Amino acid sequence: MYNLKENQEVTAVILDDKTQDRPKIEYPTNWGFKLIGRDKEALLACIKEAMGKKEHLCSLGNTSKTGKFTTYNASCTVDTEEERNRIFKYFEEHNDVDMVI
User: Fold this and answer.
1) I need a labelling partner for 44 at 20 to 30 A (CA). Which of 1, 20, 53, 68 fits?
2) Which segments in the chain show pLDDT lower than 70?
3) Quick one: pLDDT at residue 13?
């Protein structure tokens, strides 16, 4: 897998019951978030609010078969674990976001 913006190889890490150690993440790093919600304009506004003036990429993802849910993919460079967790928490607690991955 490659980070398309920087053309760097990215390693996917799967955390499951067989993984004993947390992966070591070196910062700064590019981090992606997938948001799922019912209103695509509200999701886009949420991403803009969370990112503020921070440079970021955002793309519309899939829409559910029934059209009830939409996904957005957002990514940015995070400088610390605290910053990454802060952005995730913002998305997680936002009323227009049903799920963030």
Assistant:
1) 1
2) 1-16
3) 59
